[in-house]
């Protein structure tokens, strides 16, 4: 019962407004997609509609160029569909940032436990302290976490 009251409270406040706004943008997107050629529609998303300015995002500069060519005609087409799109006076086209996969800056050595033991044994026989310490650090890559 307590959870239900919390959920109702959230939905009646800011979260409910956010959900309503998201649903409205989804409806707008469907209407916009219906006005675009099929290939272009697959690369276009509605980002916002505020004060008569419809912001559309595409996934590349090439698609942005194609959409910008259609943008001057788009408000009239959208007004014909009625609803919320009747207020569109201007279309702004933006390119959605490309998602970059994070690439590790360094490669972490993968050693078997047996290799690590051999490297550590070699480190014990070396007189050069810096080299010995470096080999011991390298040997730690082959040990399960938690062991020193």
From TrEMBL:
It comes from Thiohalomonas denitrificans. Pfam families: DciA. It comes from the Bacteria. This is DUF721 domain-containing protein.
């Amino acid at each position: 019962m307590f959870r239900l009251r919390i959920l109702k409270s959230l939905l009646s406040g800011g979260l409910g407004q956010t959900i309503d706004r998201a649903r409205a943008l989804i409806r707008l997107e469907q209407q916009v997609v219906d006005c675009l050629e099929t290939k272009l529609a697959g690369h276009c998303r509605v980002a916002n509609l505020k004060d008569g300015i419809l912001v559309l995002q595409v996934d590349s500069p090439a698609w942005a160029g194609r959409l910008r060519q259609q943008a001057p005609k788009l408000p009239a087409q959208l007004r014909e569909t009625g609803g919320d799109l009747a207020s569109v006076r201007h279309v702004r086209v933006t390119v959605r940032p490309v998602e970059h996969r994070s690439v590790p800056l360094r490669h972490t050595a993968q050693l078997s436990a047996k290799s690590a033991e051999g490297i550590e044994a070699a480190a014990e026989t070396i007189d050069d302290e810096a080299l010995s310490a470096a080999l011991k650090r390298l040997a730690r890559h082959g040990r399960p976490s938690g062991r020193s």
